[in-house]
Design goal:
Blueprint (H helix, E strand, L loop, with lengths): L2 E4 L2 E4 L3 H7 L7 E5 L7 E5 L3 H14 L10 H6 L3
Length: 82
Amino acid sequence: MKVSKWGNSLAIRLPVDLVEKLGVKEGDELYSIPGMSEEPMVKIAKKITREDRLERLAEFRKTVKWPEDYKFDRDEANSRGN
Protein backbone atom coordinates (compact mmCIF):
# COMPACT_ATOMS: atom_id res chain seq x y z
CA MET A 1 0.00 0.00 0.00
CA LYS A 2 1.26 3.45 -0.84
CA VAL A 3 0.86 6.49 1.39
CA SER A 4 -0.36 9.61 -0.45
CA LYS A 5 -1.06 13.20 0.52
CA TRP A 6 -4.76 14.03 0.81
CA GLY A 7 -5.34 17.65 1.81
CA ASN A 8 -3.53 18.15 5.12
CA SER A 9 -3.66 14.41 5.85
CA LEU A 10 -2.04 11.25 4.59
CA ALA A 11 -4.07 8.44 3.05
CA ILE A 12 -3.56 4.86 1.94
CA ARG A 13 -5.34 3.04 -0.86
CA LEU A 14 -6.64 -0.39 -0.02
CA PRO A 15 -5.94 -3.07 -2.61
CA VAL A 16 -9.01 -4.85 -3.97
CA ASP A 17 -8.09 -8.17 -2.32
CA LEU A 18 -7.95 -6.47 1.10
CA VAL A 19 -11.24 -4.66 0.42
CA GLU A 20 -12.87 -8.00 -0.38
CA LYS A 21 -11.32 -9.71 2.62
CA LEU A 22 -12.51 -6.97 5.00
CA GLY A 23 -15.87 -6.71 3.25
CA VAL A 24 -15.69 -2.92 3.17
CA LYS A 25 -17.36 -0.46 0.86
CA GLU A 26 -17.29 3.30 0.45
CA GLY A 27 -18.54 5.01 3.60
CA ASP A 28 -17.65 2.14 5.98
CA GLU A 29 -15.53 2.99 8.98
CA LEU A 30 -12.26 1.24 9.79
CA TYR A 31 -10.24 1.36 12.97
CA SER A 32 -6.58 0.73 13.60
CA ILE A 33 -4.76 -1.00 16.44
CA PRO A 34 -1.07 -0.33 16.99
CA GLY A 35 1.01 -3.52 16.91
CA MET A 36 2.72 -4.75 20.07
CA SER A 37 5.97 -5.92 18.49
CA GLU A 38 9.35 -4.25 18.16
CA GLU A 39 8.70 -3.36 14.51
CA PRO A 40 6.20 -0.58 13.77
CA MET A 41 2.95 -2.09 12.53
CA VAL A 42 -0.78 -1.40 12.53
CA LYS A 43 -3.72 -3.77 12.34
CA ILE A 44 -6.74 -2.54 10.37
CA ALA A 45 -10.25 -3.85 10.90
CA LYS A 46 -13.76 -2.94 9.81
CA LYS A 47 -15.75 -1.17 12.48
CA ILE A 48 -18.76 -3.33 13.30
CA THR A 49 -22.05 -1.46 13.50
CA ARG A 50 -24.68 -2.08 16.14
CA GLU A 51 -26.91 -3.62 13.48
CA ASP A 52 -24.13 -6.01 12.41
CA ARG A 53 -23.59 -7.08 16.02
CA LEU A 54 -27.31 -7.69 16.56
CA GLU A 55 -27.47 -9.72 13.35
CA ARG A 56 -24.48 -11.84 14.44
CA LEU A 57 -26.08 -12.35 17.85
CA ALA A 58 -29.35 -13.46 16.23
CA GLU A 59 -27.44 -15.95 14.05
CA PHE A 60 -25.58 -17.27 17.10
CA ARG A 61 -28.82 -17.71 19.03
CA LYS A 62 -30.13 -19.92 16.23
CA THR A 63 -27.17 -22.28 16.71
CA VAL A 64 -27.61 -22.75 20.47
CA LYS A 65 -29.86 -25.71 21.23
CA TRP A 66 -31.16 -25.98 24.77
CA PRO A 67 -32.76 -29.19 26.04
CA GLU A 68 -36.56 -29.08 25.86
CA ASP A 69 -36.89 -29.34 29.66
CA TYR A 70 -34.24 -26.67 30.40
CA LYS A 71 -35.31 -23.90 32.76
CA PHE A 72 -32.93 -21.19 33.91
CA ASP A 73 -32.82 -20.81 37.70
CA ARG A 74 -31.23 -17.49 38.63
CA ASP A 75 -30.85 -18.40 42.32
CA GLU A 76 -29.11 -21.67 41.49
CA ALA A 77 -26.81 -19.91 39.00
CA ASN A 78 -25.90 -17.21 41.51
CA SER A 79 -25.21 -19.77 44.24
CA ARG A 80 -22.52 -21.39 42.05
CA GLY A 81 -20.42 -18.22 42.34
CA ASN A 82 -20.15 -18.47 46.15
